[in-house]
Prior knowledge:
By secondary structure, the chain is an alpha+beta fold. The protein folds into two domains: 36-206, no CATH class; 213-348, no CATH class. It is built from 16 helices and five strands. It is elongated.
Amino acid sequence: xxxxxxxxxxxxxxxxxxxxxxxxxxxxxxxxxxxxxxxxxxxxxxxxxxxxxxxxxxxxxxxxxxxxxxxxxxxxxxxxxxxxxxxxxxxxxxxxxxxxxxxxxxxxxxxxxxxxxxxxxxxxxxxxxxxxxxxxxxxxxxxxxxxxxxxxxxxxxxxxxxxxxxxxxxxxxxxxxxxxxxxxxxxxxxxxxxxxxxxxxxxxxxxxxxxxxxxxxxxxxxxxxxxxxxxxxxxxxxxxxxxxxxxxxxxxxxxxxxxxxxxxxxxxxxxxxxxxxxxxxxxxxxxxxxxxxxxxxxxxxxxxxxxxxxxxxxxxxxxxxxxxxxxxxxxxxxxxxxxxxxxxxxxxx
Length: 349
């Protein structure tokens, strides 16, 4: 090509660029960078400090400003192994693949590849594999659906719990920030993180077991109670109330009365009593359960155990530690929460 024409073309191109709006010039520059380097991340963070899980997150410099978490982090968020391919192996299992469908599986088999780092001879940008964070919600919904259909294997119970927490917290946070956007309010980063932490804690509390399974094992042993095929034996309702809730926090049963009153005055009937405790009360319950479990494990028989309970929690009202014998055949607690059975029987008397 004629040198003069090439020079004229360059001048013309520069002049055309000057005439373009600023956002159009930025878009052209971004596309040129993507063509040369691929997608790039402009920001990086981690869930480690705020949430205690080592999950890296990024914001990409694409048109959507995609929010991305690392491939390994996706598995970590759901409680899977730390290996980078844990999430793809999990998605391909029969239970999840059946619910998720081919489109979602394909997205996990083809992670987004992008560059992170400033580049240069001494610190070239690194290539990161990740997923759009919204896929975490899609996968969590698939896990919950598999659980509801009875397709999820027992070993993935903790993964299902994480899925419920993620979906519940994200829904609450999402609707709140939609209102913020519509109202023209821009929350600070600290506000966003604090709100989501609160929602995670609220959701996690729903799935906390009220009692450690080890305590039930000790009660079976100490009281010689046969283990039923399903549910819990009727004896446990007395042990739960009289060994845990009545002496809790040296309240002489006052906390139990307040919880029942709170539930009766419009509380969610599906919730268990421990879910009506505030954070301080929940911590007191955990401490009390730990003490009772220690007493049970260190006792050779029920009499030694009950003596320890009396010595540790006595000085209140007289503790009714004796498990009464039934007048009829034992009643199975079945699927109802332990406390519900006691309240139902008392209401019937």
